[in-house]
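Sequence and structure are kept together here, with a separate record for every protein. An example record follows, reproduced without changes.
>
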Amino acid sequence: MPNKVIYQTKPLYPKLLWQRPVHFYKAEAGKVLVIAGSKNMVGAAILTCEAVFRSGTGILLLGFPQGLKDIYKDVLPEAMTLPLPETPGLTLSQKAKEEIIDQAKPCDVVIIGPGLSQNAETIQLVWELVFAIHRPIVLDADGLTALARGIEVIKSKENNRFLIDYFKKKDSKLVMTPHPGETYRLIQAIKPEELKDIKITTDYIEKHKESIAPIISHYLNGVVVLKGHDTVICEADSKIVVNKVGGPELATAGSGDVLSGIVGSFVGQNPNQIFEACCTAVYLHGMSGQLAKEKVGERSVIASDIIRFLPEAIKKAEKDI
């Protein structure tokens, strides 16, 4: 388990904010595939995609239920759109699986989860995609629900050793961005030995993020970005970073969708430095929130404000390094 905690008050990995050369092609800035959206949660995909572009990504492809095509083509003119087979409830169908896998092949990273819904067929699709896509995956929101439910099925028949080995077989990096509630569901599914004598609640998780994040990372072989006050970024057997930038202004609907977009963008631009990319993304998310708070007040910050101030946050970070 990690034993060194680093507190992030400025960009810890400034080389990720590299200056682009004069001759620079959009594909060199990363290609991101976002799988998001459903009938009742169209906005989540929009926030994620806007954050991806504002973070510097060159090419973005949004996959969504085909019935939402008219919405996304008008709202996101910069993004390429990928209408996919849907369920009767306008969520993604399992019939979309092969096309998503194929579209992911030329991408640098795939973001899965914002606004996908908890439709049973969609949940099964997401679980299968996590192991069928051979690219780094950023899993957020409903994607984390799918992960927890899949783990529950495994744990109903197998032990923790099997679970650890199962995730170690995955040949691409998994980045998980849970808030304490989603972390609680993952812990309840995993049932880690380290926590068997502790009554786990979301309040306990919030107060012990530095010890909880490494446990999830260890069992699921991925990078954990445990959101909340002082977001914790951890990769098993590596260091823990606690981000000290940003505060209550980030506790607003859609803020997590924005963070998943920033994380995905920086992972796509830096696929060989995924942990470092996550730390940088969390810092910029927090700094954007701070800048928005200074402009509109802590209580009035909304998710789109975080996106609006992201360019200024990036400029400030570049200036400070």
